[in-house]
Each structure stands twice: as C-alpha cells, then as structure tokens.
C-alpha cells in the first residue's frame, strides 16, 4: 500500500539519496533542493517520503497556498520505476490534497521538453493548460 510519510530525523538521509534518472537534469529537482525549498516556504509546502508498505520508493513536494494545490516535485527512485508505483503514488498525492485541503483542482508544472512526464500525468487524467511559466507548462486535473 502506498503511503505518504513525514520526513524526519529517521528517514531524511535515505530520502536525500533517492535518484530519478531523467534525460535532462533540470527536469526533476533533487530531493535536497526540494527539502531546502520546503524549509524556506514551510507555510505553503508539504514534502513527503513516498512508501510502498515499509519501503521508501520516492519523494513528493506539494504546494498548498492560495487555493492552488500543486504537485511541484515528484519522483520515484530508479530502482522502483516501471512497476506501476508512480501512478499509485501520484493518486495518493491527489487524495491527500483533496482530503486535507479540499482541492478541486491539482496542477503539476512539467518542463515543456519533458514529454515522458507529460504522458505520465496524462494517463492519470491531467491535461495540458495554456499556462506556461519559465519553460514549464502547468498540467491540470479537475476533481
């Protein structure tokens, strides 16, 4: 079962070691960068380790400010990719945003060139929007 767990003194080192190989490094921020960003923007950012039962498989950082819920960084570690866990983890993030923040829309910024990620989010139900910022297109899911 996929679970989102708080990152703490027991699991942060393992979380920082997660790696998602992508064709261009700027497509996915590192966990270390995302944790630093979450610390600075702590009021509006929720970082979690993603677990499959008791095994850490990934990381997510979500923005929850201004009635604008976003999954801003999402990665599944290389050793757990291509097993269907990414879609389950993404759906767990969406359920979290619905339950905790009553989200009726979830956005995901995806690099314009990162078509593999766009296809991934489309399979979950997200669609491309006209909103583009700094080379990222915002994909949207209306709930």
Q: What this model shows, in words?
A:
The chain has 143 residues and is an alpha+beta fold. The chain is built from four helices and seven strands; from the N terminus they run βααβββαβαββ. The protein is globular. It starts with a strand and ends with a strand.
Jot down its keywords.
4 helices, about 35% strand, about 30% helix, alpha+beta, about 140 residues, 7 strands, three-stranded antiparallel beta sheet
Write the SSE topology.
Elements: E1 2-5, H1 12-16, H2 31-40, E2 45-52, E3 55-63, E4 70-76, H3 85-101, E5 105-111, H4 115-124, E6 127-133, E7 136-142
Quick description:
This protein is of the alpha+beta class. The chain contains four helices and seven strands, in the order βααβββαβαββ.
- Main sheet summary: 4 strands, antiparallel
Query: What is the gyration radius calculated from CA atoms?
Result: 14 Å
Secondary structural class: alpha+beta
Q: Care to count the β-strands?
A: 7
